[in-house]
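dude i think i finally got it to work??
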Amino acid sequence: MTIHQPASELFELLDRVHLIVGGRTFYFGDRASLVSHMLTSGHPIPQYSNPADHVLKVMNTDFGASFEDVDNMIAAFEKSDLQQRLLKEIEEHSGRVDLELSTKEQRTNVFEQTWYLVKRSVLVGRRDISLYWVRVVMYMSIALLMGSTWYQVESNQQSVQDRFAAYFFGVAFLCFMAVCGIPAFLEERRVFIRERASGCYSLIAYVLSNFFVSTPFVFIIAFAYSAIAYPMMNLRPGADQFFHFLLYIFLALMVAEGLAVTISALIPFFIGALTIVAFFNGFFMIVQGFFVRVSNIPVWWLWGHYLSYQKYSFEALVKRGFGGFVFDTCDQCQCMFPSTQENMNLCRFTGEDVLSE
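look at this
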């Protein structure tokens, strides 16, 4: 551990200290022996003072110490019994250790690295509320807003467009807000680059740990939104309908988070990453098939429709929400959509009739 000017309480916790001046050893040994060494060197530590502060004044030429005094102190340590015992200890230790151990053999494997990184990330996630918990509150607020806007959507033909809009907005806006995770990733990226350069862990361990830690948090976000918005909107009753809704929202958020992380890794500054992620999410939102029918999308943008991850979640939600659903009787038996139930003399239509259009 490297510490600059530690407090007296922290200094007392150290077993050994290594004081360095200009790359040369000023002192190395037990912390308790430092007091006697400074006394014999002619620079006794005053009573009731912090030893670290006093030593720093003695050894640092920026604080008034002369170069000559510092050189004399270094020479005194090199001739001291402490130095001789240290050299003897190093010699004895070198005889017991196999110096031919490779760095590869001493490193932990990928699974251990992943486990340690997971524990650290969980601890950071619990302490840093801005990493996930602020986003949970934000998504809960969005859920309350949507639930109160689409409150208890009716099952008549006038509500068809409202149901489409609820599914669309639930996917599009939630995925768009994945940009909120960019600042935390960019901050962590700097730590990763430094630790990766030092050989602390491999790239695959870092990727796996991020996946294992972020997946539960993303699920919490998806569940917090779905548990509030879905019953308030009353799109389709039933537990199976709710869990399918939750699943499709969760999968869309996972892809959105992955997109934000990938672009942030390629463009490691906030404004650039935010701009590109927002552009792609906006592009996928436009071509997913809600604003413009797929048949009307220009051929030069049609590839974007099939590339859009939002398209697949939106279509899954729509097919699940409309499939098997029967709308109320049409006013004056004038239905907006051709009905497959006309042969039954029923003035109503089903969700399949809507999807077939």
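The beta strands are 16-21, 24-30.
im so relieved honestly
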